[in-house]
Amino acid sequence: MDSELATVLRVWRDRTTPEQVGLPVNGPRRVSGLRREELAMLAGVSMEYVTRLEQGRAEAPSASVLTALARALQLDDDEQAHLFTLAGHAAPGRTRVLRQVPASVRRLTEQLGANPVAVADAGWGLLLWNEPWAALFGDLSAARGRRRNVAWRRFADGARGGITHLDEDAFERGLVADLRTALGRYPDDEELRSMVGDLRASSPRFAALWQQNRVGVHRGSRKTIDHPQVGRLTVDCDVLTADRGDLKVIVYTAPAGSEAAGKLDLLRVLGRQDLTGDRTR
């Protein structure tokens, strides 16, 4: 791994204080910045992996790990782009999907923090999510690759995870039309093209919808979720598209004063405790 990547990670960790990221400071510290174990916790990786990265002994991290590190270190857009470049991920061009989350979009998710919020790339690969989202759907930190992709989980895994949509057919049609639009917009993105090809081969439902040649942008739906802690609730899912890179900001809400809103409030208190599996499919 490039030694410069190891160096900048150490420098950025040293400059990031616990106060900046909302961590408590209990007693005197030998360093003013984050400890390795604190960065690991914030980024959802092991401390051993952070150590290997900073010592130049680890393989180059994936785009999802880089995004998590950038979020934990509160990097701005230029710093995040530099981080991706050092790790061997070329800055996405016009014909490839952006898999970085700009600082401005990260700030937006933080400001919407009372609601479950996630960010996906143009091909529906989940890049980040907040605590209310993890409490509602389960934490995907341990998931890798396509296991974080909404379309793959829907059509290839074949499970619903306790989620039903007000109109299942419209949801699936909209998702496939959105993927076709993304592939047309980013024709050189091998990861997206490969996933679509594998979905066409493995899912008769996806293949049938793909053959309809529909294009469009999926903007949201209503979902009913059977949650193991708070029971059944119905929420509105709105998909906002960021101008830069067609990133999708996915926000879940319920009418003020409704039973569902009360259950979302309860989940914010309960957090992710005692959750069994995820319900994102």
From TrEMBL:
GO terms for molecular function: DNA binding. PANTHER family: BLL4672 PROTEIN, BLL4672 PROTEIN-RELATED. Residues 33-80 form the HTH cro/C1-type domain. PROSITE patterns: HTH_CROC1. This is XRE family transcriptional regulator. CDD domains: HTH_XRE (cd00093). InterPro entries: Cro/C1-type_HTH, Lambda_DNA-bd_dom_sf, MLTR_LBD. It holds the Pfam family MLTR_LBD.
